[in-house]
Amino acid sequence: MKLSDLAKKTGCEILTGNVNLDKDIEDGYVSDLLSDVIGNIKENSVWITIQRHMNILGVAKLKDVAAILIPRNLQLEDSMIEKASEERIAILRNPRSAFELAGLIYNLLQKG
């Protein structure tokens, strides 16, 4: 499933414009512990996290994450969104909880 389709079907707000919207999403991962993400996330995943500091961009780039998804409509600094755009890392935001988003994305990816 393309990131653009996933964003539309989950009602996500896209904070980084057209960055990675044509990327195929293969998996999802939920974690707020950066070392856990580094050790376990797969390429082309959507990473659901409440972390909102610059270090998540480095992890996303290192692991070739398709997008970072911020739950509960948590706010991000404009400088972080700008840096993510420069680094070609998509950031999405949604009012749902991480739990709800994980289930929704799992179901969407299982259907293909």
Contiguous runs where pLDDT drops below 50 for at least 5 residues: none
Instruction: Give the strand tally.
Output: 5
Give the overall shape, derived from the CA principal axes.
globular
* CATH architecture identity: 3-Layer(aba) Sandwich
In spatial order, strands of the major sheet run: 1-5-4-3-2
Main sheet specs: 5 strands, mixed
Query: What is the H/E string?
Result: HEEHEHEHEH
Helices and strands: which structural class?
alpha/beta
Helix content: 40-55%
**So, the CATH homologous superfamily?**
HprK N-terminal domain-like
Query: Count of helical segments?
Result: 5
Query: What is the radius of gyration?
Result: 12 Å
CATH topology: Udp-n-acetylmuramoylalanyl-d-glutamate--2,6- Diaminopimelate Ligase, Chain: A, domain 1
How far apart lie the N and C ends? 6 Å
Strand content: 15-25%
What CATH first level would be assigned?
Answer: Alpha Beta
Mean pLDDT: 97
Tell me the count of domains.
Answer: 1
